[in-house]
Every structure is written in structure tokens, then in C-alpha cells.
TrEMBL record:
Gene Ontology CC annotations of this record: membrane
UniProt xrefs under InterPro entries: Bact_OuterMem_StrucFunc (IPR050330), OmpA-like (IPR006665), OmpA-like_sf (IPR036737)
Record PROSITE patterns: OMPA_2
Coiled-coil parts of chain: none
Keywords: Membrane
Pfam families (UniProt xref): OmpA
Protein name per its UniProtKB record: OmpA family protein
Residue ranges of every copy of the OmpA-like domain listed in the record: 148-269
Basic and acidic residues: compositionally biased ranges: 80-104
Amino acid sequence: MTEFQDAMGQASTTAGRTRRYGPVRMACFSVGFAAFFSLAGCTAVDDLTTSPEERAAQQPQKVTTEGVKDEFPNLAEVPSEPKPHTPPETREEIVSELTDDRSKASFTDPTPLITAAPKKLDPFASATIISADSVTTSTQFAGLSSPTETGPGQLAAIIFFNHGSVVLDENDLGVLRDLVTLHEQRGGRLRVIGHASSRTQNATPDEHQVANFEMSLERANVVSAELLSLGVSPDALATEAKADAEPVYHEFMPSGEAGNRRVEIFLEK
């Protein structure tokens, strides 16, 4: 009996506990179910008000590993030379074609411009300094100053010579004829003075002076002989030689040297 009573007592105790804690557990379960259905309702409302594009944008992006296994270039290495745009064979063919075209090209020379040749003016052409009508000195040189009148009387004419020459040309003879005409009109006396430039061949100083004196004297004699042949009286003619002692131009230029190879003729009263 005692064991039966104990068993019944435990059963009643267990039943009492069950009855005591039953309502609490039921309340907890009710709150949980209410929260679950509330969240489900919100999710359903969001699904109805959100477009498919917005829902897709809200999805988390998928992480990819594309390119992780690619090799990075070595910055310490020199890159290889780029390939040419055209193969060497093609370039050689183009160059060959251009060369052929150039060899076949023809050019037409332009028509030359015809111009009148300028009149050559000799700055040292022999000339008469004064005319029969006036004793005023006239221009005889182009681009060079007239020689200084260092001789006696008035400088009437100058005869120029080439280097080492004593030959009179047609212009020289014409000047001497004009001078004779002037002398006949005005009278007086003619003094012929020969000169030479300082240039000679390699020689001693004495040989240099002798060569220049002989050249100046020979030139003066040639002019005097022509004046005599034109009718000038020997009594009205005097001949001298100065060698290179009286230059009128500096000889650092050929033009100055040419101006010193001369015969001056003065008209004296």
C-alpha cells in the first residue's frame, strides 16, 4: 500500500507541475508565432512594392576570382621591338617602284630670261682729262678717285697698261689723237711721265727698282713716240720715268695695282 501511495503521490505532483507551467509556455509560443507572421507580412509587402530591377540591385554582388591567376609583367625586362607595320619585302617593293618612277620622270627646263648684256665699263680705260673747249677736269674713272695732279702743268690724259705690257690699243691711240688736237689749239708743251706698279717677280731690292724704272721709261717712250708720229714737235715734248715712286692707289687689291700702271701726260704753258 505504501508503495502504491508513493507512486500516486509522484503522479499527482507531476500533474500539478504540468498544470502550473502550461499557461506560461503557451504565452511564449504565442508571442513567437506573432513575430514570425509580422516579419513575413512585411516581406510580402516589400516584394509587392519593389520592382524586379531594384530587387536585383539589392542582391549582394558575387565575388569572383577572375584574373587572380594571371601573371603580372616584369618591369625589369626590356620590351621586345614592335613588329613593323609592313613586311620588309613589301617595303623593298615600294622603294623599287618609287625608284623606277623617278628614273622615268622627265623635266622641262624653263625658258631662259633674255636680258641685254650690260655694257662693260673698264675703270682704267685711257681717257682725255680735259677737252679743247674747257680746262675743267672731266670724269674718267668708274668707282675710283682721280689721280692727284702732282706733275707740272695740268693733267691732260692718262694711258693705262696691262701688267708687264707697253702695247697701245685702239682706245689709247684715239686718246692720243684727241690730245694732239688739244695741243694744237692751246699750244704749250707736253710732258710724258711713265709709272709702274710695285709688283715684280722675286728679285733683290735693287733689281726690283731697276725693273720698275725700265718698265715705266719704256711706257713713256712708247707714248712719246706715238705723239711725235702724230705731229707733235720734239721741242714741245718731254719724257720722264718715275718707276713705282709715285703710286696713286694702294696695291693691296688688283684694281689699285692696275691704276698705278700708267703714263700721265701734262699740258704745260
